[in-house]
Amino acid sequence: MELGVAYSDPLADGPLIQRASKRALDQGMNIVKAIELGGEMKKNGVNIPIILFTYYNPVLQLNKEYFFALLRENHIDGLLVPDLPLEESNSLQEECKSHEVTYISLVAPTSESRLKTIIEQAEGFVYCVSSLGVTGIRNEFNSSVYPFIRTVKNLSTVPVAVGFGISNREQVIKMNEISDGVVVGSALVRKIEELKDRLISAETRNQALQEFEDYAMAFGGLYSLK
Questions:
Q1: Which residue has the higher pLDDT, 226 or 73?
Q2: Predicted confidence band at 182 (pLDDT cuts at 50, 70, 90)?
Q3: CB of 120 closer than 8 Å to CB of 109
């Protein structure tokens, strides 16, 4: 499960997640509270790995030892930093290893030599970006993405999950045929945005939560990795 940290300048995210980040920040959310929320989820029965998705600046603003102590105390399993390029990620990857946190690598269409370097360092799974640009809902993908994903799959010794733009069950099924899992983000955030007033109201919250669960499960369930 990917747990995104709200950030004021989310360069990799499209309008949907930008609006969600602003709503969260306006309510006082920050990286510490997000990590603690992950811990609460674990306490309340979430028994699948939780990957913290955060930009690098919020991490830098915390003392590194404090940051990793928070991850450990709240049983956060992995870390994904979308704005940290390969050349600058080695130090953080080593720190993750020493604190037993899985560092998740992102790969986008690039040269094969660079692709091999990223994949060789990958742990947990490789997050394969299905389209260039920011996150967001897409009705279709460039045809070049399919051979790219197959190349990543052939090179990788860890599972390959595909994300960015997956917005319906048909896309999930198609991507799952050539990968090990599919990441759905913006579509779920859009549904939460549609339901937000009903989620806020105590009278309609349970019904809205059930509607959201039904919507999320229609993508194929919570356990998308084969």
A1: 73
A2: very high
A3: no
Active-site residue, selected from the candidate residues 2, 77, 87, 94: 2
Residue 2: active-site member: yes
Identify the CATH class of 1-103: alpha beta
Superfamily of domain 105-226: Aldolase class I (3.20.20.70)
Beta-bridge partners for 182: 162
pLDDT at 167: 84
DSSP string over 9-71: S-TT--HHHHHHHHHHHHTT--HHHHHHHHHHHHHTT--S--EEE--HHHHHHS-HHHHHHHH
Quote the tokens at residue 119: 């994949």
Choice between 8 and 67, residue whose per-residue pLDDT is larger:
67
User: Which residue type sits at 215?
Assistant: Y
Every domain of the chain and the residues it spans: 1-103, 105-226
List the catalytic residue out of 9, 13, 95, 170.
13
Q: For this structure, is 123 an active site residue? A: no
Q: What angle do CA 223, 159, 49 make, to 5 degrees?
A: 45
Give per-residue pLDDT as tens, 16-52: 889 999 999 999 999 999 999 999 999 999 999 999 9
Comparing 124-138, 161-175, 205-219, the range with the smallest average pLDDT is 124-138
What are the CA-CA distances from residue 9 to residues 17, 47, 124 (Å)? Answer: 11, 31, 27
Q: Token pair for residue 15? A: 């309008």
- Pair 188, 220: CB distance under 8 Å: no
